[in-house]
Amino acid sequence: MQSGDYDDKIQKLLEEGKRLGASGFSEYEGKRQQVKTPNLRSPTFKMSDLETDYKKKNESHSFQMDNKQFGDAPKPYTKSDFLDPVPRTLFMPLNLNNNSNNNNSIAHGPTIQPRVHNLAPIGHEISALMKTKSNLERTLDDSQAQVEYLTRKLDESKNVVQTQKAHFRKSIEELQKKLQETLAGRKQLMEIKENEMHQQEDMIHKLQTTIKELAASNQMQEQALLDAHERLNILQNRNQSSEHALTN
């Protein structure tokens, strides 16, 4: 195979790589255009030209002691190299002496660089959830204490209401005896009785409404506590999975 055939094949590979969206070919193409494959069968070819070109290549790739780096040596890995989740296309080397490479297909496969999971945000989130859990538990205890206190007050109020009802009933009976002779007295007595009953019923209704609101708030706080427990378990499982993945 002539050197021109190699150049044509490499040019086709470069065009195919650009079409597939692979990166890093523009720099290689510029270098390839500067350094052509020598035609050994050319009548103008000289071995001295090949030796001179070889020396120039060695000088360009010389080791620089002052800068402590190689001329075209690969750069050291950085943190961003391990945190980059984007897969890159890797073109496999071609065996130009193999006749199976005469087609224009290119063997390539995706390579994904490893990730380093940062566990600090997970730990911080677990700590925040633990604080939220503690606050919710404390709020739940306070709400339960308030419910118990209001329930006790409600029972006391009911007892007071029953006592007042008995007292009012007795008073009304006495008033009925005194005012039974007049219609105005009876009407006034009925109004007093109805007003007292409405006041007592309003008081009981308000207390029952307050208890229902506290019970609903207590239920919401319990649900929030369950959600916090669930999120905490999920984060702990994720943390264990991450630690297991890192140890492996």
From TrEMBL:
What are the boundaries of the region Disordered?
21-48, 57-76
Q: Which residues lie in coiled coils?
A: 126-238
**Top-level taxon of origin:** Eukaryota
| InterPro entries referenced in this protein's UniProt entry, alphabetically | CCDC158
What are the record keywords, sorted? Answer: Coiled coil
Q: Which Pfam families match?
A: CCDC158
The record's listing under SUPFAM superfamilies reads: G protein-binding domain
Q: Which PANTHER family did the record assign?
A: COILED-COIL DOMAIN-CONTAINING PROTEIN 158
Report the protein name in the record.
Uncharacterized protein
